[in-house]
Amino acid sequence: MNLQIHPENDQDFHLVEDLTRNAFWDVYQPGCTEHLILHRLRQSPGFISALDLVAEDEGVIAGHGIATRATVTDAQGTSHDVLCLGPLSVDPSRQGQGIGGSLIRALTDKARALGYRAIVLIGHPAYYGRFGFRCTEEWGITMPDGTCFPEMMLAELYPGALDGIRGTFRPDAAFDVSQEEADVFDLRFPYRDKHITDTQLK
Question: How far apart are alpha carbons 147 and 157 in whole angstroms?
């Protein structure tokens, strides 16, 4: 494998959305919404072109990752800039080859170089824990409804980056999409059947 990681080109947007759709299809629910989230993130105020990366192997895009602006708002109402990582997608036929990890490390390095203090994500603890992400509960950071759960994870980009900062995590509004909206967006892609599985979120 000769993996090259670089910023996404706008000519690749549809192809990467299709890759994202394939990577998440039926994983958390019948069908998925992540490809629409990605589409909207690129048009949002939180978009950062330097943190919209593809992983290419021999000229073929095998994975994609994106980090966008988000905030942690403290009890005094002050907002502190952080990043939200995701969607992170690897072509299903290429999963398990380290492509996702390479994208995470590249995004983390670039975010640190740009001066950001931390990255938050929602993902599998066993996987993202390998890259230094830990539950946000350690920092007293919750969702807007005050909840926190093991899949809500954070990595500081330098020691003490969030010292003294506690509060509510707020990602870009582009993450707020419905399955109905995703179903309409799906019409741009080849038809796929949806399936209910025992591993999906209830």
Answer: 24
DSSP per-residue string spanning 143-191 = -TTS---TTEEEEESSTTTTTT--EEEE--GGG---HHHHHHHGGGS--
DSSP codes, 51-116: GEEEEEETTEEEEEEEEEEEEEE-TTS-EEEEEEEEEEEE-GGGTTSSHHHHHHHHHHHHHHHTT-
Q: Residue 202's pLDDT is what?
A: 65
Q: Which residues, other chains included, contact 202 with Cβ-Cβ below 8 Å and sequence gap of 6+?
A: none
Q: Which amino acid is at 54?
A: V
What are the tens digits of pLDDT across the range 43-79?
999 999 999 999 999 999 999 999 999 999 999 999 9
Residue 106, C-beta contacts closer than 8 angstroms, at least 6 positions apart: 5, 53, 65
| Contact by Cβ (8 Å): 170, 144 | yes
